[in-house]
Amino acid sequence: MIHAPHVDWFALSTVLALLGASGVALLGAVLVPRPAQRAFAATVAALGFTGGIVASVWLYVASASGHRVVANAFYRDRWTALAQAIVCAVGLATTLLSVEHMPGWSRDADRSRRDDHVAEFFALLLASAAGMAFFVGAANLMTLFLSLEWLSIALYVMCAIDYDREGSLEAGLKYLVVGSFGSATLLFGSALVYGATGSIGFPEIAHAVSARGLSHDVLLVLGLALVIAGLAFKSSAAPFHMWTPDVYQGAPTPVTAFMSSATKVAALVLALRVLATAFPQEARLWTWAFAGIAVASLTIGNLAALVQRDVKRILAYSSISHAGFVLIGLSAGTALGGRALMYYLIPYAAMAFGSFAVVAARERELGVPVTLDTIAGFGWERPFLGVAMWFFLFGLAGLPLTGGFVGKFYVLAAAYDHGWAWLVIVGVLATLVSLYYYLGIVRAMYMRPSDELRVGAAVAGGSPPREALLHVSVGLALAVAVGSLFAVEPLVDLARHAASSLPF
Amino acid sequence: MLGPGVVWYLGVAAFLFGIGALGVLVRRNPLIVLLSLEIMLNGANLALIVFSRHVRGGAGQIFALSVMAVAASEVCVGLGLVVALHRRRLALDVDRLSELRG
Fold it and tell me: For the segment A9-59, what is each residue's pLDDT rounded down to a tens digit?
């Protein structure tokens, strides 16, 4: 008889729900007749994500005392469960957005090819979310690397799925090359850390470092640096951000919405877990490293966004600067910082998703990329989406209309508490600069459309498509973004319970 | 212990990783870039196996085995994308993939 480790299936239930749904959607791509595929796959995806949300909430309630399961390879605790819930919620919203929008607006003109690969897209979406749900709970360097690739490979294909547009293929290949470069860096760093400590489990690494006095070991420090670089690639923080604007611009907009919210949540949540559990003795090193990365992200993200015309590129740079804000919370390296990071990600995910969803609506309506010129007049033509975008952008800027304000306040408080007043000043300055380009989009939306644009819209087909489900997903994002301002206390409590799983 | 010490093996691993990284950064043909990515991953694999022998534990070797599977699936997707690009136009040169810029 083979001696197998005990498997806590309940701890894996979120991942299994998503993976199961992914398998069913993939079967649907083969077995379900073509006209029904879109409805079938979307329903399966919605059910899968709902199941994932239920499972992760249940897991949150039932895992007050965190511990590792499945041969110590996976964390069952509230930090994992809350991140899984956020990822699944974003996945559900992406499903609603994708029903009418995928695999891409470039095929709207050709009815016969409109349903190409739609079931495969939902299967990939579910698989990628399953990878993220596993990633956030990874407890050793091997599960960390494997789940990182699991979520990434699915994302590479999703970026390129609108293959009639060269931009989409280009985004897919660029993301693949840069993403694999980041993963390989992380892998080499993991190998060095393993060589220095002789173990791959996070707490075992910390234990070996303190037991054998390794905290100034060259291999370990070099390995840690490479691991940090690999994680920064995934969370698109400067100076590892070069791929972000190109990929976010080229990928189909629903995929961008998913990447900018869910991937970032997963990468940042996991980054704090790795650093806090595996490298507590090097805290001085990585807090400074992340403070530097945060400053670079805030500077580059905000300054580069000022000169962009393409709305998706502006939002991509804005997402780089938000990675900087979250990393301010991370670089505090305290329980308060962990709480701030987790709270920040809730309204951020909703606002980032929502703003890209609104862009998706405009893009499909006109059939051209959305720039500050082509978005002109959008606020008057589609009042609900205009107002929602207004809230998202002001929220991203940090005005007290959404939870983004509290999140920013909270991460800056964590930095101040850590004794880094200079980081607070950088954060406030970055917020001021960011107001310029966020307001620029709002101004463009409510400007009168130019004459040639009006003609273009009429040629493209007159009245906009109905897109009821897109409105639902934008409405959900808006509710979460605004609700997180009014429900600060319960959400902070959730984040506090989650962060208490980390060893601070 | 006979044979070269762990430092030599580690040197080769780091050298492979460096060659791969350089290849990704300077070569322009996407096929060569994919090859270079594989070399990076294999450099890391070699380091894992060396350390696995060095610290006398099995984890590194299992890790290396699973990395091979991951590398294969990654290159599958990469080659698929290269073929799709190739179908759309002939020039395979990453410097000309510049529709996305700003």
Answer: 999 999 999 999 999 999 999 999 988 999 999 999 999 999 999 999 999
pLDDT in tens, A271-310: 999 999 999 999 999 999 999 999 999 999 999 999 999 9
Record: contact B74-A153, CB cut-off 8 A: yes
pLDDT in tens, A454-470: 544 544 445 556 788 99
**Separation CA A208–CA B45 (nearest Å):** 22
Chain A residues with CB-CB distance to B93 below 8 A: none
Under DSSP, is residue A140 helix (H, G, I), strand (E, B) or coil?
strand
Q: Which of B6, B38, B81 to mutate to test the interface with A (most CBs of A within 10 A)?
A: B81
Using the beta-carbon criterion (under 8 Å), do A142 and B47 form an inter-chain contact?
A: no
Distance CA A183, CA A146 (A): 10
Which chain B residues have a beta carbon less than 8 Å from that of A157? 77, 80
For A124-158, b/e burial (b = at least 16 CB within 10 A) is: bbbbbbbbbbbbbbbbbbbbbbbbbbbbbbbbbbb
**Hey, are the CB atoms on A176 and B51 less than 8 Å from each other?**
no
Q: Best residue in A173, A186, A220, A368 to probe B by mutation, most B CBs within 10 Å?
A: A173
Among the ranges given (A169-178, A367-376, A446-455, A480-489), the one the predictor scored with the smallest mean pLDDT: A446-455
- Hey, what CATH class is B7-89 in? mainly alpha
Residue keyed to tokens 């082509």: A374
Q: How is residue A181 written in tokens?
A: 């470069």
Longest CA pairwise span in chain A (Å)? 77
**CB–CB of B57 and A156 under 8 A?**
no
Min CA distance, A350 vs chain B (Å)? 26
Check CB contact under 8 Å for A199 and B57. Answer: yes
Mean pLDDT in residue range A160-179:
91
Residue (of A299, A184, A322, A137) closest to A248 by Cα position: A322
Give A144-194 as a 3 state SS string: HHHHHHHHHHHHHHHHCCCCCCHHHHHHHHHHHHHHHHHHHHHHHHHHHHH
A175 CA: distance to closest CA in chain B (Å):
10
Distances (CA, A) of A289 to A229, A286, A317, A423: 10, 5, 21, 13
User: Residue B102 has what pLDDT?
Assistant: 63
Residue A67 host element (H or E): strand A67-69
Question: What is the pLDDT, as a whole number, of residue A454?
Answer: 55
Q: Do B63 and A142 touch (CB under 8 A)?
A: yes
